[in-house]
Amino acid sequence: MKVLVVRFSSIGDIVLTTPIVRCLKQQLSNVEVHYLTKNSFKAVLDNNPYIDKLHLLDNDLSEIVEVLKKENFDLIIDLHHNLRTLKLKRALGKKSVAFNKLNWKKFLITTLKINKLPNIHIVDRYFEPIKTLGITNDNKGLDYFISNTDIVKIEEALPVNFLNGYNALVVGGSYFTKQIPLNKLKEFCDKSELPLVLLGGKEDFEVAEEVHKSYPNKTINLCGKMRLNQSASIIKQSTKVITSDTGLMHIAAAYKKDIISVWGNTIPEFGMGPYLAGGNSQIIEVKYLSCRPCSKLGYKKCPKGHFKCMNDIVVPVI
Length: 318
Prior knowledge:
Layout: E1 2-6, H1 11-15, H2 18-27, E2 32-38, H3 42-45, E3 53-57, H4 61-69, E4 75-78, H5 83-92, E5 96-98, H6 103-112, H7 122-127, H8 154-157, E6 167-170, H9 182-191, E7 196-199, H10 205-214, E8 219-221, H11 228-236, E9 240-244, H12 247-254, E10 258-263, E11 282-285, H13 308-311
Parallel strand pairs: 1-2, 1-4, 2-3, 4-5, 6-7, 6-9, 7-8, 9-10, 10-11
Helix pairs in contact: 4-5, 9-10
């Protein structure tokens, strides 16, 4: 049996599909698992041993369709479920299943604050369309694999005072309203008993540098200096991970780290909280705000102007 799993983006969403490919590979005999994602997310899956072949989409859907037609798949498992995947499935003309994105229920809670969301994680929702194959969740959590070349030797990359233990602090996020504000980042530094490695992209460097200037002996700014999988290696070797709703949060969950997850405009009830993370993980959020959640994704600025969902969080001792 030849199966194509489809999830185009993004880092966290792709990591959340890894139990599907593992269970397909381990629970079906003679199965060949292929995966289609965007080329920009190649690193997320490149080292996954449960994927027999990785297909990468640039911008031209028609180009990848011609490649996929030659594979003659028996089944397409659509874990993205949007207009683009609909076009893909129609073009391939093969049997397909898709998961329920619950968009109307997300619309209800973000616009009318009516909560009809099921109490079920998105990972478990991913399993629903493949139950007919006899596939069940093994409850082993998420997977994240990196190559030996991406393993960071902390004794070479970090200061001496970090070698007896450190926390990872993720700076930034895909949207402003998901990001931990500068004053709260500094507060986490105050409350952390261990030194902190600041992680993020190039776009997060300046904010992280402001934090580092305030805590020069307690932090190191690696934002924009590490490849994604090198950041994953730093996270894997950390004691705890402090992060907002980001892809690195899900990578930390794959490594069973204790996670302090900080939630702004989004909510764990969307079904995308840290999945089977460390047993001492905590969710930090401001509950009962009348404006929260304001979006299933996020905004460039707070629609209300006050950003209370982040500014009012209470930072715990870590």
